[in-house]
Amino acid sequence: MLMKGNEAMAEAAIQAGCDAYFGYPITPQAELLEWMARRMPELGRVFVQAESELGAINMALGAAATGARVLVSSSSPGISLMAEGMSYLAGSEVPIVLINVMRGGPGLGSIGASQSDYFQATKGHGHGDYRVPVLAPSSIAEAVALTADAFELAERYRTPVMILADGVMGQAMEPVVPVYRMPARTNAGWELAGAADRAPRVVRSLHLRPEDLEAHNRRLQAKFASITERETRWAGEDLEDAEIVIVAYGTAARVARTAIERAREQGLRAGLFRPISLWPFPSSALATIAPDLRAIVVVEMSAGQMVEDVRLAVEGRTPVFFHGRTGGMVPTPGEVVDALNRAWALTAPAEGR
Amino acid sequence: MIRVQTLAPSPRRVIYRRPDLLTDTSTHYCPGCGHGIIHRLVAELLDEMQLGPTTIGVASVGCSVFAYDYLAVDFVEAPHGRAPAVATGVRRARPDAFVFTYQGDGDLAAIGTAEIVHAGARGERISVIFVNNGIYGMTGGQMAPTSLLGQRTTSSPGGREALTAGYPIPITEMLALLPGVSYAARGSIADPQLIGRTKAMVRRAFETQLSGSGLSIVEILSTCPVGWGMTPSESMEHLARDVVQTYPLGVIVDRAKSPSAQGKG
Amino acid sequence: MAIAVHPSRSGVRAVDIFAPLDVAVDRCKGCSLCVTACPKGILELDLAVVNALGYHPVRLINTAACTSCALCARVCPDAVFGVFARPRAT
User: Fold this and answer.
1) Contact between chains at B17 and C32 (C-beta distance less than 8 A)
2) Residue C38: CB partners within 8 Å, gap ≥ 6?
């Protein structure tokens, strides 16, 4: 059936057992909130349009602290308001799923699609030593699947999890055979419900003694190491014989796919490396294939954010090029083919020396 | 020769006992701090109304950030000012819980103004304990939105001037305008009688929540002896004599009792 | 402590101990709010004692005058008091 991305993600959350949704209208994800406004009361579940994104993320903290499965959604400027809340969620180890349907920035920016919140999502939004798993779907069908995965990840590791979508994906309508999934519930024994017949529990991020906070941070870091080891995801296309590879995610990856088809028609052996988990970033996988490549071209709808992680992963073994558009502009396949050809030309082996 | 035989101590009738819901931990509050009295009132009421097993408290940021170490109920810690929003999430996810926030004047009337106004506008079934001591104690004694005109603080060393720093904010009167705020009252801890009346207000607030009729808030005028530069007893006198001039005591609204009328109790 | 003496025929003097106030000495912070609140003025800080918190704790100086009104308990920020009355005469 034909589904709009925002609505597909909303319904995926509902089918995944989402108990409560908190949000605030912001373009380009208002349809997600509106879908929840209609469906959640139908099912006797919780829906609140908060007074701001700041209110919404804090309502999420409260509800999730009681063990509810919670979804929050927003777009870039609203996510900035949620940065404080994300730091508290991570420090208090409270699981939620947060969907960011990215738009142009900085500031009020534009309502067009972008990927300029990569740093914000993967480097932590808020203050303190923490990481948040970030999943980047590249199609509406994948967004549906990753929504269920996100709830599962959040609860397995007691962490907020982000889904990084963009305005194109949120607004586009595609034929989808949605495959919904409800991850099993686990009662992990930390949720608040009233201390009847047990000692009181406290959900907190304050640990005033430095020794205590360091111990807490070590535990958190061990958790992030475990997530890095087990939850890294990526997909490759046409990599077996590729000599030049595009690294792209989300909507940029879809454009890249078309560009690669055209490049191959022209005789260029191009392939696609598509990170699906932006954190943990698939560094080892990329580092493994990089030495065999002549060049890597990173394509983003930003001024260049993921490209830094690509360069770190590759560690100088392969030249890395960048092509990006900002402000809500989407790169065309033609531009990306040109970028491939430019990179190919610039990396031609030296002649006659 | 008279032999002295000591009888067993006479069985005593308990007039007052330390509440069960106060933990054994000695509080970090300064000697004479109003938080100690107010924590005690909350513990007494939760005990008396048998709410301990279903209570989820929301702790805020300020001197009372450690309330969860002193009150033996489930607690979630909220960022500064956000307690009413966090409490909203708790309340909506757990319809049968008893939910209260415990907030200071900076938390509720400065950084958290949007959150309390909208929790009130939505009529969230939570009880808000608002401790107003007209100063930011935890961070060293800076001016609060509820500091009095002329009050010297570390960020108003010459005394608060209306021209540059505005007027003390009557936040509870403002909240009482909202139909979703079912009970709003202001008490004081300045002497034992007033403490008794304040306890009755908090009891009424808790009853309001249990009857499901909207948000309840009790503002409690409290002291900060160290921040004010006074002894505990002098602080109580200042409360009784000076602070009430700006913040009069009484029930501001009790919609469950008298839907259209407002009265002073 | 209040002492009531009951002379008996056998020549034994029975001593009856009743304490209207229990004070958690090591919880007291010497804030003196109870000293001010006591209507009989029979509470004072014991300057000869320094408790575990480093304060002079409160002490009841006239047990017989205590009416168990519990105003001290009502005003105490640290809930150091247990207040008791004699059992009612039956």
Assistant:
1) no
2) C71, C72
Contact B89 A20 (CB under 8 A): yes
**Which spans in chain A are helix H?**
5-15, 30-42, 53-65, 76-81, 83-92, 118-122, 140-157, 167-171, 210-230, 250-265, 283-289, 306-314, 333-346
Instruction: Report phi then psi at A25, rounded to 5.
Output: -65, 130
C3 contact residues in B (CB cutoff 8 A): none
* pLDDT tens for the 353 residues of chain A, in order: 888 999 999 999 999 999 999 999 999 999 999 999 999 999 999 999 999 999 999 999 999 999 999 999 999 999 999 999 999 999 999 999 999 999 999 999 999 999 999 999 999 789 999 999 999 999 999 999 999 999 999 999 999 999 999 999 999 998 889 899 999 997 789 999 999 999 999 999 999 999 999 999 999 999 999 999 999 999 999 999 999 999 999 999 999 999 999 999 999 999 999 999 999 999 999 999 999 999 999 999 999 999 999 999 999 999 999 999 999 999 999 999 999 999 999 999 876 54
- Whether the upstream peptide bond of residue B168 has omega within 30° of 0, thus cis, is no
- Contact yes or no for A206 and B89 at CB 8 A: no
Chain B touched by C25 (CB under 8 Å): no
pTM for this model (two decimals): 0.92
For residue A54, the chain B residue with the least C-alpha distance is B82
Cross-chain residue pair C81–B16, CB shorter than 8 Å: yes
Interchain contact A297–B (C-beta under 8 A): no
Q: Which residues of B touch C82 (CB under 8 A)?
A: 14, 16-18
DSSP letter at B53?
G
Residue A72, C-beta contacts closer than 8 angstroms, at least 6 positions apart: A21, A22, A23, A56, A57, A60, A82, A96, A97, A98, A99
Q: Write the residue in B68, B90, B114 that is nearest to A202 by C-beta.
A: B68
Residues A299 and A257: their CA atoms lie apart, in Å, by 11
- Looking at the DSSP bridge assignments, the partners of residue A237 are A272
Cβ atoms of residues C80 and B7 within 8 Å = no
Residues contacting residue A234 through CB under 8 Å, at least 6 positions apart: A273, A274, A275, A276, A277, A282, A285, A286
Please report all neighbours of B, defined by 3+ CB atom pairs within 8 A: A, C
